[in-house]
Please model this.
Amino acid sequence: MASIKQGLEQKLQQKLSPLQIQTIKLIEMPVQALEQHVREVLNDNPVVDDTPQGGSEDEPRDVSISQVEAQEQSGGSLEENYGPQDDDIPSYNLHVNNWGKDERPEYNTFSVKQSFTQSLQEQLGYRNLTDHERTVASFIIGSLDEDGYLRRDIESLVDDLAFRAGVESSAEEVEKMLKVIQEFEPSGVGARDLRECLLLQLEDKKRTPSVSNAIRVLDTQFEAFKNRHFQKIMTRLHLSEEEMKAVLEEIRHLNPAPGGQIDDSYNDQAQQVVPDFQLDYENGQLILTMPRFSIPELRINRKYSEIMENGRLSDSRADKEAATFVKQKIDSAKWFIEALRQRQNTLESTMRAIIDFQHDYFVDGDETSLKPMVLKDIAERTGFDISTISRVVNSKWIQTHFGIFPLKYFFSEGLENSEGEEVSTREIKKVLREMVDGEDKHNPLTDDELVDGLAAKGYKVARRTIAKYRALLDIPKARLRREL
Model:
């Protein structure tokens, strides 16, 4: 029989306090979400009064939390200590100190545009179809992806109609209804691949020589066109260089993703960017402010301050329980305000460290002045954890005198130049973009030539790095950049 032993074991565990947890959550929030959260939290707390003080001098006024704390320590009467005073009425608004009573509608974003699916369904309603045909067509519309393409084959749609909608149909009928949908706006919708999408748009255009030639190219030479083998196309279709240029111009103005022309009302694509910081450059000085938010001064509704006073003076159990409830709500408000204060200090300290690190860049906005900077660099300057810096940087924006930027923009790895100095990868990307923009489009630069070109400018970059940066900058390979 196994023996049972009893012993002591010492463990070191780290637990976050409720205040720390709340602070972490607030740090992650961008200013717009924070303002909404402040309203929700304070509106849910009945103890806090959200109206400016007013009334006659004889009417008892709301009290501040600091006054409540002083009262608890002194043990005196709230009425004795904080009766009517002749000082100015404090300006107080729970929405945030820099808001008026009227909420600012420009920051309440609503989507009023018609969604892509709704637009197609509305157009379907104008067609003279049987109920059965309308059901099939509606099912096809629901099967289109966000770009407006039908990625399913016809036979799969026939099966889906039977199993998911309980509708018997045929491949011929589905194909017929698809043709109906392909006549809808935006032009090109309902295509099964890029070639069909572009052809549908060309068919809707006035039949000019260039449009006719573009249809011939996409219909018979799509693979050669996709690989930009223009000379082969010109030879096979007997097109002159001018005619081929006209074809390219026609195709260049087509939309490869017609579904993207109409915003989906159910996607939050219209969300507005509201900067958390504002940086001005005046008289040779960088001035940082956080204008969109300031910590509100909480005040306790006089009704609840009286409940606390009665609870202290009364022997009634009900009065004491009511006073305890009010005290809990006051403590909750105090923790929340302290979390807001810590968030404010953390964001400001982090942003000032970033500005100090990238001082030369913030003076004139020249990308080449951006130094390589990682989260660890700012963590060391502020004394915060790297995870804290990451939370500050995430979803935060700053408005400068040369534009609005996400804080993530200022962070990048570094590479050494020919002189052994560390330069930002963003600087290298900028030089790479300039080289591609300035190249001869009849004979674009290969990756090897880009490597040599960067080396001549003092940047040591491997060929695989060039390929990686091209992909990040959406720059195609050399043969796909070739023009006539």
Q: What stands out?
A: The longest strand covers residues 277-282.
